[in-house]
Design brief:
It comes from Allopusillimonas soli. Helix content is 33%, strand content 26%. The chain is α/β, with parallel strands linked by helices and 237 residues long.
C-alpha cells in the first residue's frame, strides 16, 4: 500500500501541561481531500499547526511519506511540499497583494529566476488575484483576502495543502468560488488536502473523506455521501 502523505502515530500535543491531542492517530492519503470537522476546541487547529511545526509536540510521531520526521518545522515542511493556509487568513493589511506575494516567494525560498513564472502559475489557478493585485490587503473583502492567503500558500507548488477554516466569514456561494479552483487543481495534480471546516455542508461537496473530532479524538470516519442528510450530521453535534 502507498504510504500516507502525512500521518501521526500516538501524537500528544497540549498547552501548559494540559493535552489537547493525547495519542492521536490519523493519516492523509495521497491525492485525497480529507475534511476534518468537529466541535469548537476539539483540537483541529492544534493538529494542523502541529503538523506544520508551529506548535511543538510532546510525544508521538509525525510521518511524511512514511518517513518519521525527527524535526518538524515550517521551512523543512515547505521544502518537502507541504503548505499551510492559516486560520484568520494571516495577511498583512498594510502590504499590497504584490508585496505579499514577493514576501511569500522569499519565505518559500523560490529562486529569483523562477519567481515570475511561479507567480504566473498561481494566477492561472486563481485568476481573481489579478484584479486586486496592487491593492493593500487591508482594503480587500474577506473573500479576496482568503484568495491572497491561498495564493500565498500555493507559491511553493505544494503537493499537500493544510487549510484551516478558509470559509470563515464567507457566504456559501463565495466558499465554492474560492475552493472550486483548488479542487480542480487538486484533481489535476493529485495534491492532497487536509481541510478543517465549520461550514460542513459546503466542505463536503469538495471532499473525498471526512473525519469527525471531539475533545481531541476521532469519533467517526465517513464518506461525504454518508453524512449528506442533515439529520446524520446533527447526530454528531
Ligand atoms: N495557544 C494556546 N494556548 C493555550 N490553549 C490553547 C491555545 N490554542 C488552543 N488552545 C486550546 O486548545 C484546545 C483546542 O483548540 P483548537 O483551536 O485546536 O480547537 P479547534 O478544534 O480548532 O477549535 P476552533 O474551531 O474553535 O478553532 C481549546 O481548548 C483551546 O482553548
Amino acid at each position: 500500500m502507498t504510504a500516507a502523505v502525512l500521518q501521526t502515530d500516538g501524537l500528544v500535543v497540549g498547552y501548559g501541561g494540559r493535552p489537547v491531542l493525547d495519542g492521536f492517530d490519523f493519516a492523509l492519503r495521497p491525492g485525497e481531500v480529507l475534511c476534518l470537522i468537529g466541535h469548537n476546541g476539539a483540537g483541529k487547529s492544534t493538529l494542523l499547526k502541529t503538523l506544520f511545526g508551529l506548535v511543538p509536540r510532546q510525544a508521538g510521531r509525525i510521518l511524511l511519506d512514511g518517513r518519521d520526521l525527527a524535526v518538524v518545522q515550517p521551512r523543512a515542511l515547505t521544502a518537502a511540499g507541504v503548505s499551510l493556509v492559516p486560520e484568520g487568513r494571516g495577511v498583512f493589511p498594510g502590504l499590497t497583494v504584490a508585496e505579499t506575494m514577493s514576501m511569500g516567494m522569499w519565505a518559500a525560498g523560490i529562486p529569483k529566476e523562477q519567481r515570475p513564472q511561479r507567480l504566473e502559475w498561481v494566477m492561472s489557478v486563481l485568476p481573481a488575484l489579478k484584479t486586486f493585485y496592487q491593492q493593500r490587503a487591508g482594503t480587500l473583502s474577506g473573500g479576496q483576502q482568503q484568495i491572497v492567503s491561498i495564493g500565498r500558500a500555493l507559491l511553493s507548488q505544494p503537493r499537500c495543502l493544510l487549510m484551516d477554516e478558509p470559509s470563515i466569514g464567507l457566504a456559501p456561494k463565495l466558499f465554492q468560488d474560492l475552493l472550486q479552483p483548488i479542487r480542480t487543481l487538486q484533481q489535476r495534480t493529485g495534491m492532497s488536502i487536509l481541510l478543517v471546516e465549520q461550514n460542513v455542508k459546503e466542505a463536503l461537496k469538495i471532499s473525498d473523506r471526512v473525519i469527525v473530532m471531539k475533545s481531541g479524538a476521532i469519533i467517526r470516519e465517513a464518506l461525504p455521501q454518508d453524512l449528506a442528510d442533515n439529520a446524520k450530521l446533527m447526530e454528531l453535534y
